[in-house]
């Protein structure tokens, strides 16, 4: 499945300062559909180059605004959000130092 991932608010620094990633990822064998629950560990393993703990804690991404096709993932089921071909997923850090 082809997806576009965008990182902002400082999260791009965890991905070698690359903001936009066009990726191909398939659902896990036992799943028919790809969900955010499966995408997040894939991102941690394949895109995050340093300090993965700054991106994920447990199964989720605290302090990160997540948009799927410009819709807040809290409105579409968070980890249970089903992804479709050519979806755009945006991650924006809401944590800032002072």
TrEMBL record:
UniProt signal peptide: none
1-thioglycine: residues carrying this PTM: 98
Record function comment: Acts as a sulfur carrier required for 2-thiolation of mcm(5)S(2)U at tRNA wobble positions of cytosolic tRNA(Lys), tRNA(Glu) and tRNA(Gln). Serves as sulfur donor in tRNA 2-thiolation reaction by being thiocarboxylated (-COSH) at its C-terminus by MOCS3. The sulfur is then transferred to tRNA to form 2-thiolation of mcm(5)S(2)U. Also acts as a ubiquitin-like protein (UBL) that is covalently conjugated via an isopeptide bond to lysine residues of target proteins.
Keywords: Cytoplasm, Isopeptide bond, tRNA processing, Ubl conjugation pathway
Name recorded for this polypeptide: Ubiquitin-related modifier 1 homolog
Pathway involvement of the protein, from the record: tRNA modification; 5-methoxycarbonylmethyl-2-thiouridine-tRNA biosynthesis
Cellular component terms (Gene Ontology): cytosol
Family in the record: Belongs to the URM1 family.
GO terms (BP aspect): protein urmylation; tRNA thio-modification; tRNA wobble uridine modification
Domain of life, source organism: Eukaryota
Modification after translation: C-terminal thiocarboxylation occurs in 2 steps, it is first acyl-adenylated (-COAMP) via the hesA/moeB/thiF part of the MOCS3/UBA4 homolog, then thiocarboxylated (-COSH) via the rhodanese domain of the MOCS3/UBA4 homolog.
Upper taxonomic lineage: Eukaryota, Viridiplantae, Streptophyta, Embryophyta, Tracheophyta
Keyword Transferase: no
HAMAP family assigned: Urm1
PANTHER family: RURM1 PROTEIN
Source species of the chain: Olea europaea subsp. europaea
Major localization listed first in the record, in broad terms: cytoplasm
Cross-link (Glycyl lysine isopeptide (Gly-Lys) (interchain with K-? in acceptor proteins)): 98
Cellular location(s): Cytoplasm
